[in-house]
Every structure is written in structure tokens, then in C-alpha cells.
Write a structure and sequence with these properties.
Catalytic activity: a 2'-deoxycytidine in DNA + S-adenosyl-L-methionine = an N(4)-methyl-2'-deoxycytidine in DNA + S-adenosyl-L-homocysteine + H(+)
Distance between the termini: 51 Å
Low-confidence stretches: 296-305
Number of domains: 2
Largest sheet: 7 strands, mixed
CATH topology of the largest domain: Rossmann fold
Number of strands: 9
Order of helices and strands: HHHEHHHHHEHEHEEEHEHEE
Protein name: site-specific DNA-methyltransferase (cytosine-N(4)-specific)
Shape: globular
Radius of gyration: 20 Å
Strand content: 5-15%
InterPro entries: MeTrfase_CN4_CS, SAM-dependent_MTases_sf
EC number: 2.1.1.113
Strand order of the largest sheet: 4-3-2-5-7-9-8
Mean pLDDT: 91
CATH superfamily of the largest domain: Vaccinia Virus protein VP39
CATH class of the largest domain: Alpha Beta
GO molecular function: DNA binding; site-specific DNA-methyltransferase (cytosine-N4-specific) activity
């Protein structure tokens, strides 16, 4: 059983500020630190570097908190009904007690966010530094990102002044935040930015000129973006109506000699990409934080299970 939020927009803004008080100044400071680190020695930036996150979150934090996890709730739903979610079983209560003991400085809202991330799944931003390293390796002229998400791959392109970035996303709630983000990026980057807020399947890719595809598509219904429910209810629908047609269309129109790069789970690589694109020519493993969670008295199994995550790369002959 799940309960949902009835917060107003102003209440959501207030809650977001309780979690992270991002300002234009902190965002631009973060951008400056990222820029200096890239200029100094991009390849020596630590794999788990958070550089660029504060810049991105300044624009998209509300939508991050609005995004539903695979359990069907977003953080606002969780916090609005915290009396239920934070006392639903003994393991949750035990976890909260542990957090309070080890981090007594945390506010109730921040404790709630930690519980939500651990038990319901946090929403992650693709690291701009990871994107920048890949662009620096492959030297693209124009990047196509057909599920652009929270801006990590855009920021990575902008920090390197890649000639052009084309971003597509079906979450219309991101249009205004991205507009504001791009106003800042255009002042400090030479990258031409072309953003389209529409269903990626409805784009005519033959009209676009790109030599690199790099994206991190949704993993089935693990995350539900914006105010709409997912149009695909089963994994079979995702496979046949989204993954296969979008991978085929974007691959077919990629320039010869270009690179096709997907940050996807191994199951999608094996089930969809191998038959469609063949074996990837290169795999880049992404570093991840490991964590151990207490056992839960619920039906949620394999919580915190370790797994490897890769960027799969194909080169078009």
C-alpha cells in the first residue's frame, strides 16, 4: 500500500530547500571548480567525483524529488506520509535510530531522505566528469542524447566545448529548468545546444547530423519521470515499443565512423543490443558506492544487492 503527496508547488520548494539550499552562487562556484579540474587534468579526476552536481541540482532538484522510483512513490509522497513510511516496520525504525546516533547533526527531513534513498531508491544524476572523460577519448563533433535526464552529459559536453549537443527528453517538466540552465551555459561554453522536449520515438533522426550517441535510457520502470505514468507496463512492452525501435533508429542514422555509447544494465545489453548491434567493441565499468542495508521485514528482496554497471561502446563501420 502506498500513499501520495498533496503538497503545493511552494511547499515542495520549501522541502527541497530543507534538503539542499542551492543558490546561483553555489551553482556557479561548482561550475568553476569543475572547469578548473577539467583544464588541469581531466583523466585524474576521481571516478566518483561529485563536481557539477551542485550546478545541475540548482536547476533540476525539484524534479529529482518529483521522480517516482520503481516502488511507485517519489520523495514528496514519502515525506507527506512520513508517519506511515518511517514507522512501517521494525527495520525502518532501527535504521532511523542508527542514523540519528551516527549523524546527530542531520535534520528530520535529511534523515527521511536517507531512509527513502536506501529503501525506495534514490534518483541519480549521470556524472558530468564521466561524460567529459568519454568525450575527451572519442572526440565527437555532435552528440545525440535521446534520454537526456538531469543534464550530466550536457554539462560534460559544455565544459569541453564540444561543437554541438542534441538533447531529447519526454519530461516536459524539465523544459523550464533546462532553459534556465542553458542561459548560464551559453555564457561560459561554445557548445551549440539543441534541446527537444518530446517523445524520442517521434524524432526524425535522418534529419540530424551526429557522430556520437551517448545516453542512459530508463531501466524499465525503475524511475517514472514527470507527472505522467509510464506508457509501457511490462518489460516486453519496453523491449518491443521502446528499446528496439529507438536503438535501431538512432544507430541507423549515426554517421559512419561514429560511436554509439549506452549506459545500460547487462540484461538489456544481452537481450536487446547483442542481437541488434552485435558485440560492443569496448566496455567501461562505472565505479559505484557499495552499501550494506539491514534486512527488512517486507517483501522487498535483494535490497542493496551489488551489481556492475557499464558504458557499452560500438563503433559504426
Amino acid at each position: 500500500m502506498y500513499f501520495f503527496s498533496e503538497y503545493s508547488d511552494s511547499e515542495k520548494i520549501d522541502i527541497a530547500k530543507q534538503l539542499k539550499e542551492h543558490t546561483e552562487e553555489t551553482a556557479l562556484t561548482d561550475f568553476g571548480k569543475l572547469q578548473k579540474a577539467v583544464e588541469k587534468d581531466l583523466n585524474n579526476i576521481k571516478p566518483l567525483s561529485p563536481l557539477g552536481f551542485k550546478f545541475l541540482e540548482y536547476f533540476v532538484h525539484i524534479e529529482l524529488l518529483n521522480t517516482k522510483t520503481r516502488y511507485g512513490i517519489c520523495f514528496f509522497d514519502f515525506w507527506y506520509n512520513r508517519d506511515f513510511y518511517m514507522s512501517r516496520d521494525a527495520s525502518t525504525v532501527k535504521l532511523i535510530d542508527s542514523i540519528k546516533k551516527n549523524k546527530p547533526y542531520l535534520t528530520e527531513t535529511k534523515i527521511g531522505k536517507q531512509v527513502f534513498n536506501l529503501y525506495y531508491g534514490g534518483i541519480s544524476i549521470f556524472r558530468p566528469t564521466t561524460a567529459a572523460k568519454l568525450y575527451n577519448q572519442l572526440k565527437p563533433q555532435c552528440i545525440l542524447d535521446f534520454t537526456m535526464g538531469w543534464g550530466g552529459r550536457l554539462l560534460g559536453a559544455s565544459i569541453l566545448n564540444v561543437s554541438k549537443y542534441i538533447g531529447i527528453d519526454s519530461n516536459a517538466n524539465l523544459e523550464e529548468p533546462y532553459k534556465k540552465m542553458c542561459e548560464h551555459l551559453k555564457k561560459v561554453s561554445a557548445t551549440e545546444i539543441d534541446l527537444r522536449f518530446q517523445d524520442a520515438l517521434n524524432v526524425d533522426y535522418s534529419s540530424l547530423d551526429y557522430d556520437m550517441v551517448f545516453t542512459s535510457p530508463p531501466y524499465y520502470n525503475k524511475e517514472i519521470y514527470g507527472s505522467k505514468d509510464s506508457p509501457y507496463k511490462t518489460k516486453e512492452e519496453w523491449d518491443e515499443k521502446f528499446y528496439k525501435p529507438i536503438f535501431r533508429a538512432t544507430w541507423d542514422n549515426l554517421k559512419k565512423g561514429g560511436h554509439y555509447c549506452l549506459n545500460i544494465p547487462q540484461c538489456i545489453y544481452e537481450k536487446i543490443c547483442l542481437p541488434l548491434l552485435g558485440e560492443a567493441s569496448e566496455l567501461i565499468e562505472l565505479k559505484k558506492y557499495s552499501r550494506i542495508l539491514p534486512k527488512r521485514e517486507t517483501k522487498q528482496f535483494n535490497v542493496g544487492q551489488k551489481y556492475k554497471e557499464f558504458i557499452y561502446i560500438w563503433k559504426k563501420a
